[in-house]
Amino acid sequence: MASTYGHVNLISSFGFTARWRHKVVAGLPLASADFIVDLMSGMGEPWRSLAAQLPASARVVGIDISPEMARRTHRKWHFPVEMRVEDVLEWDPQPGIADVVVSSFGLKTFDREQQRRLAQTVSQLLKPGAVYSIIEISVPPYLPLRAAYMFYLKWVIPLVGRLLLGDPDCYRMLGLYTQAFENANHFAVCLREAGLEAITESYFFGCATGVRGVKPSLNSGQALATGECSGDTRREVLGFG
What we know:
44% helix; alpha/beta; disordered C terminus; Rossmann fold; 7 strands; globular
């Protein structure tokens, strides 16, 4: 899919995937971040959204299982980037290195046990007080929209892929993965079990869902656990500013 993925993604989503990537990084404390990890990074599509806020001193590391996706990653940014070809489920990163962990549209390929393992990796990567934000296309809860959306994912997008000289069988997996994934709610539970704060978000009536949060530091973790912080403080801790 690598040769056509970027064009098919942008055209078939009517630009929504780009807008959602902007939203998923909005409010994160990027201006003060030194080390950002992008999981299932594909060709580094979220980095355009990160670039508006990241200082030149920040370092971005992308992790993806596909050598071809990694090869096609755009690397000319005002901050240094590194692409690593890794199976994130087998990867054993150095603990507590990341100020921010992001991921966009790679989660749907993981079953429930793999999501649990991935949540442990996210927790391992983050420094205390560091934040994460993840988004994935999802099955809308409203029946008429769900029927139309799933038909579009399963049948129209493979046709767009074929017209742009891609492999329609690969693009047909998009609908199958999404149907099995449903939404980000289970992953949010996994993240909480891994010791992270997590709140879920819905985009365009549930056509995408996300989860973001923080790895509690001692003080913020105690305050969040006991409910002693205000609503505004909780939103700040969770990366909404």
